[in-house]
Input
Amino acid sequence: MSHALSGVTTRARWHRRLGFREAVFGWLVVAPAILGLLIFSVYPVLTSLYLSFTRYDIVNPPEWIGLDNYVKLATGDALYRKSLGITTYYSLLSIPLSLVVAYAIALLMNQRVRGISVYRTCWYLPSLVPAVANAMLWGWLLNRDFGAVNYPLRLLGLPAPGWLVDPEWTVPSLVLIHLWGVGNSVLIFLAGLQGVPQHLYEAAEVDGAGRWHRFRHVTLPMTTPIIFFNLVIGIIQSFQVFTLVYALFTNDPTTSTGSAGPENAGMVYVLYLYRNAFQNFKNGYASAMAWVLFLIITLLTLVAFRTQGRWVFYESKKTG
Output
């Protein structure tokens, strides 16, 4: 009996040692990823939160000023409020237009026609163009005097807008350029459309549903999760637009240093944040702007998630 108990005890100790070794090995394997997350993500985020309550210009040590940066953002910086308004205007235009255009293109690319793979490739290719090259290309296309967009308009006797030199047309021009690169959204929508169960279409046809009714009662409800996903991504990306505007206006000889298009009509939020941080060296102020942007995006994302139950259809809910 004693030998049996001794054997059980030995096996238990061996299992404990083995479990300890496996745990140590596991932590060693994930340690680089954890350290990378802490050093390159968590630490900078917490540092920026601290700097948002300070006056900091990189050269001198941070000086604690409490909520002064946030008070200035709310009451004393007209250009900040303008950048927030421009970004909101851009988002209100680009998000719904991007969803509608990308969804419509995905519907066309979902048709069974000869050579459809070539068309799909052509629609996706613009999204692969680097943002700076994209900006240079469209800067030429939308040139008021000799651009390829205004030239045919003049030939037809139509008004030729001042696209990037008219304050009223600056944000619509940015939205137009953005629509040219919706290939990623089209690809996601196309995957969602091809995932709609065929038996639902067959059942609808048996009930006598036409093409419009099949789209309204089958295709659209079944792809609402994909629409919701692209909506959330669109909210995040639209409030973080930067590269396009920076490339368009930074090297523009018609604008002065620090401006963004005519009458700062292209001064989006992140561009103003960047210039405060790396041109004016107001890093504490820029950190406060970054945290305000984080709160705005978080709030809008939470609103989207809280309201999705009213219009997003999940098949599992219905079948469960």
